[in-house]
Amino acid sequence: MYDVTEIRRDFPILSREVNGKPLVYLDNGASAQKPQVVIDAITRAYAEEYANVHRGLHYLSNLATEKYESTRGIIARFLGVRDEDEIVMNTGTTMGINTVAYGWGMPNLQAGDEIILSVMEHHANIVPWHFLRERQGVVIKWVDVDSTGYLDPEAVIAAMGPKTKLVAVTHLSNVLGTVVDVKTICQAARERGIVTLVDGSQAAVHMPVNVEEIGCDFYPITGHKLYGPSGSGAIYMRKERMAEMQPFVGGGDMIREVHKDEVTWNDAPMMFEAGTPGIVQQIGLGVALDYMMGIGMENIADHEKKLRDYARTRLDGLNWLQVQGTTPDKAAIFSFTLDGAAHAHDISTILDKKGVAVRAGQHCTGPLMDHLGLTATCRASFGMYNTEEEVDKLVDALELAHDLFA
């Protein structure tokens, strides 16, 4: 039985007020709030258990190492990965994709090789490939979405050609809420010998994920969206791809031996984890993922689908509101504009006066905004702790904004 009231009690920030109103936090697509168990784990790690990992032989170092490394196994279980050595821990999706761009892309791609992206990718899954375009002559091919925000997997497959070396697509759009059929795309790419990266920043928050069933080569996730600390995250890397990669950040832990005229690398995944890591952040991430799995990812997904359906019904009743992304099975993410000249920033400011927190801007999706012919949208993104009552408060605040700007 999913008890959202009980879940909300686990998140202390949800009991506060903003501008004299109860906080309605609908900015989960940017970053989620933290449950008390994560906050406690972070406090305990700093107050009672802190030491550097891997290199010490004393009690605290061994304890910190054990807790830090246990997160690798938790992430593997969370993503349906059998071998935890295929999990590289880092600061989040941006670092994960850059690791692929520099560690795999630079050694393996040449001028004229093609990378396929969808038009709704986050900048984190665009800018690193532009580095390769500028510096190595790699060609970026774009696949559009239709008027509902749907990305046809057959369109992605049709774009694959003899020069295609990588397909990098989001699993779930952070603006449109579109869920992409990445399994079909990855299967077709694998049959053609094409490497695949699936951006899991949003999808891993809202639904069960099994990367081995998806069949991708890389799958990055971000901890702060998963109810964990900022500065935490990981990327799944298929071992076959790891063998084709070179480290691009040098320092401690990623080496085996260092001499004046020679350096030998550590084995993966350590080869891609240079320097002192975010020890406490990763410990907190492990607790956050355990918390989510304790509730059940299927249960979270079902709760958010009900919220999506309720929010869709309420928002559809506002004939002056334009929602971007209308695929039937989308996630509980709603990006919208108001008829007239009201800018997204102005709308967001009015909503904030009512205690409703939403995001306003381009949401790090410049190509998608160009495709939609928009400069910005407001975005309400829901999480495991949101309620139908909060949807009603969002609608009330939007009606106030409309009255003010009409």
Automatic annotation (TrEMBL):
According to its UniProt record, the EC number is: 2.8.1.7
| Protein name as annotated | Cysteine desulfurase
Q: GO molecular function terms here? A: cysteine desulfurase activity; pyridoxal phosphate binding
- Which PANTHER family does this UniProt record tie to the protein? CYSTEINE DESULFURASE (PTHR43586), CYSTEINE DESULFURASE 1, CHLOROPLASTIC (PTHR43586:SF8)
Question: Taxonomic classification, please?
Answer: Bacteria, Pseudomonadati, Pseudomonadota, Alphaproteobacteria, Rhodobacterales
**Organism expressing this protein natively:** Marivita geojedonensis
Which keywords appear in this protein's UniProt record, sorted alphabetically?
Pyridoxal phosphate, Transferase
Q: What GO biological process, any one, is recorded here?
A: cysteine metabolic process
What Pfam family is a match, any one? Aminotran_5
Q: Which cofactor does it need?
A: pyridoxal 5'-phosphate
Family named by the database record: Belongs to the class-V pyridoxal-phosphate-dependent aminotransferase family. Csd subfamily.
Q: What does this protein do?
A: Catalyzes the removal of elemental sulfur and selenium atoms from L-cysteine, L-cystine, L-selenocysteine, and L-selenocystine to produce L-alanine. Catalyzes the removal of elemental sulfur atoms from cysteine to produce alanine. Seems to participate in the biosynthesis of the nitrogenase metalloclusters by providing the inorganic sulfur required for the Fe-S core formation.
Annotated ranges, domain Aminotransferase class V: 24-394
Query: What reaction does this catalyse?
Result: (sulfur carrier)-H + L-cysteine = (sulfur carrier)-SH + L-alanine
